Amino acid sequence: MGKILVVGGAGYIGSHVLLALKANGFDAVTLDNLSSGHTQAVRHGALLVGDTADSAVLNQVFSQHSIDCVMQFAAHIEVGESVQRPIKYYHNNTSSTLNLLAAMKHHGVDKLIFSSTAAVYGEPEDIPILEENPTHPTSPYGHSKLFVEQILQDCERAHGLKYVALRYFNAAGADASGEIGEDHRPETHLIPLTLHAGISGRIIKIFGTDWPTPDGTCLRDYIHVSDLAEAHVRSIRHLLDGGASSVYNLGCQHTYSVWEVLKVCRAVSGLIIQHQAVDRRAGDPAVLAASSQKIQQELGWQPRFDDLEAIVTSAWQWHQRHPNGFSD
């Protein structure tokens, strides 16, 4: 079935993709510097500790392993931090990916799955968002990902690289086993923040209750991380079968409000979760939702866990068993 190099496989999404690779018969090796990943999250294949900024490490990996396809998850992901520390984001997200691409070219590896983001669209002009919609990032994080997408196009024209760039919307949930899940430090995503608030007794902040939406809070498109992992497996098969390079949105095509997330988290967990309404955050769009018709039509992908209760239930199973994340 081929050996896959999973860069950033010790992180939230990468670790779930490793499980999907195992279930589908793919061999895998993970390269991760563990700056935000966790050794306990790597449940398939070998873990090599190293950084894509180090060309010697990359050359060693490609020399010792016969790699058929690379998956690039390694990135800093905090939009707010990227505004304050843009050099950090361009160095890690863009420059280090260039390093990876150079090593791939040197060793004759010509297939890449790239972890992109809905942040490349910036303030959306139309909902749901199509892949053809304008890309106007409003943060260095979004720019750092869009730059890589442009580099991939140039590499395809120059030396035949084939790639799939997957633009994630709001990944959430956890594997059904409850043994791996979301453990960002610091955590900024709504569902784990809300469940953590219930466990710890802290207050969850609601950023704006006067948005032009039915209940006044922001609307977001959530995608279960296991569905997201399945999309990566289908993308690998597409490339290994000789498929063309492409860009796909990954979302469930319908939205839930912040109030709805809070309500479902309370119902699923049975916890008393306190909240506080505060001012809007600058740059937050009122509604963010994907059209995933393209990947459904071209790769046959369909989300299986597109119900908010199912997503929150899987996340709660993880957080209930591991209230301190992988430190437990």
Question: How do the strands and helices of this protein lay out in sequence?
Answer:
Elements (H helix, E strand, L loop, with lengths): L2 E5 L4 H12 L3 E6 L13 E4 L5 H10 L4 E4 L6 H6 L1 H21 L4 E7 L22 H20 L2 E7 L1 E3 L17 H11 L2 E5 L11 E2 L1 E3 H16 L5 E5 L5 E2 H12 L4 E5 L8 E2 L4 H7 L8 H14 L7
Parallel strand pairs: 1-2, 1-4, 2-3, 4-5, 5-6, 6-11, 7-10, 8-13, 9-14
Antiparallel strand pairs: 9-12
Helix pairs in contact: 1-7, 2-4, 4-5, 6-8, 6-10, 8-10
Protein model, in words:
The chain has two domains: 3-172 and 222-250, Rossmann fold (3-Layer(aba) Sandwich), CATH 3.40.50; 190-220 and 253-327, UDP-galactose 4-epimerase, domain 1. The chain has helices spanning 12-23, 55-64, 79-84, 86-106, 140-159, 190-200, 225-240, 258-269, 293-299, 308-321; strands spanning 3-7, 27-32, 46-49, 69-72, 111-117, 162-168, 170-172, 203-207, 219-220, 222-224, 246-250, 256-257, 274-278, 287-288. Strand 1 (3-7), helix 1 and strand 2 form a beta-alpha-beta unit. It has 328 residues and is α/β, with parallel strands linked by helices. The chain contains ten helices and 14 strands. The radius of gyration is 19 Å and the shape is globular. The strands form four sheets. Strands 3-2-1-4-5-6-11 form a seven-stranded parallel sheet, sandwiched between helices.
Quick overview:
The protein has 328 residues and is of the alpha/beta class.
Based on the coordinates given, report the CATH architecture of the largest domain: 3-Layer(aba) Sandwich
Fraction of helical residues: 25-40%
Please provide the ordered H/E string of secondary-structure elements: EHEEHEHHEHEEHEEEHEEHEEHH
Radius of gyration: 19 Å
Considering the protein shown, what is the CATH homologous superfamily of the largest domain?
Answer: NAD(P)-binding Rossmann-like Domain
**Number of discrete helical segments:** 10
Low-confidence sequence ranges: none
* General shape: globular
Look at the structure and give the mean pLDDT: 94
The overall strand count is 14
Structural class: alpha/beta
CATH top level label of the largest domain: Alpha Beta
User: How far apart are the first and last residues' alpha carbons, in Å?
Assistant: 35 Å
| Main β sheet profile | 7 strands, parallel
